[in-house]
What does this fold into?
Amino acid sequence: MDRRDWMNLPLVEEIDNSMSCMIAPQPCARLMAMVPQVAETIRKQYHTASPDALACVKAGLWLLADDLETCHKICQNIATPLGSAWHAIMHRREGDFFNSLYWWRRVGVIRWLHPRDGTDIAECIDQITGAGNLWRRASLKLVHPYDPAIFTRIVEACTPAKSTESADVLMRIGRLEWLALFAMSMAAVGAVGTEDRSRRAPAGS
It folds into this structure.
């Protein structure tokens, strides 16, 4: 299974229909039902991958299905930068911005690249209609390369979202971020020949 293959996994193909709200989402039963089979398919394909790498993949799949509780149970026990990143997103999506920023600090520096063309996702975000106005309303500016901590502060400043347009822009960026982090997680299990050799981070709450 290479990069093209995993992007065609049924659950990943649902990304545009997933993560329906930025803060305090309700788990999606339809997507949750898909997670075990997709996770098992990846586990069988990459059975020699490290448990932490496979756990990151599972955490990402449960997050995509908006099951924050299950995602948290998994990622809080992953002592790697990628595990900390999933942990940070989970806390941001539950509205715990302070804890999210804590976990972003544990992540350190990772490259947020779009798996289709390898561009920094900040470039993709610049192309999203209305993003510039959203940043001005939040009195913050998204930087290049992408900084998820700044995006977390933007989400906090825009919560609750004042308009459907703002909420849609935030979720479109959240999906881009998910796709980039899931690509890193798949690379860590060996899907694109790269392992997560980054500095390990301690587990926590």
Observations:
- The chain has a mean pLDDT of 87.
- Residues 34 and 66 are 12 Å apart (CA to CA).
